[in-house]
């Protein structure tokens, strides 16, 4: 149901480096940067697989407490996302594994990004 969403980040370049690595296992990458004349000078970029669906916007008012879950196409992608995100400087917030309290096949992993946002990759498919 989500068409696209965006978060505010305190350091665009640091967040870009993190998401470049964390999203690679999911097959997503930075697809576009909005020209500065349309953003008031702020760095704004969109990530996705075939179109931008997750946007970063640099601003001083970034903060933790947000949660974003991204669909993985397999449990292996969930694990690869978690490993890549940790290697990129993310902090662990839940290793890859089943979360049967959501549903029997819910397989997810969680990391905190550089601004403390809780980012998840989840696969809903059985093994």
Summarize the structure.
It is built from 2 helices and 9 strands, in the order βαββββαββββ.
Poorly predicted ranges: none
CATH architecture: Roll
Summarize model confidence as the mean pLDDT. 93
Total domain modules: 1
Determine the fraction of residues in helical runs and give it as a percent range.
Answer: 10-25%
Shape: globular
Strand content: 25-35%
Query: What is the CATH superfamily classification?
Result: 2,3-Dihydroxybiphenyl 1,2-Dioxygenase, domain 1
Helix-strand topology string: EHEEEEHEEEE
- In total, the number of strands is 9
CATH class: Alpha Beta
CATH topology: 2,3-Dihydroxybiphenyl 1,2-Dioxygenase, domain 1
Rg calc: 14 Å
The count of helical stretches stands at: 2
Could you give a short account of the major beta sheet?
5 strands, mixed
Give the N-to-C terminal Cα separation.
Answer: 24 Å
- Secondary structure class reads alpha+beta
């Amino acid at each position: 149901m989500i068409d696209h969403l965006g978060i505010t980040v305190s350091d665009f370049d640091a967040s870009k480096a993190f998401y470049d690595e964390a999203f690679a296992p999911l097959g997503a990458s930075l697809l576009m940067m909005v020209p500065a004349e349309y953003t008031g000078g702020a760095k704004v970029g969109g990530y996705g697989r075939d179109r931008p669906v997750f946007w970063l916007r640099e601003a001083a008012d970034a903060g933790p407490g947000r949660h974003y879950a991204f669909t993985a196409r397999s449990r292996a992608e969930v694990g690869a996302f978690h490993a890549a995100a940790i290697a990129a400087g993310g902090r662990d917030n839940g290793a890859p594994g089943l979360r049967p309290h959501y549903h029997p096949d819910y397989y997810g992993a969680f990391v905190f990004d550089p601004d403390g946002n809780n980012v998840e990759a989840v696969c809903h498919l059985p093994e």
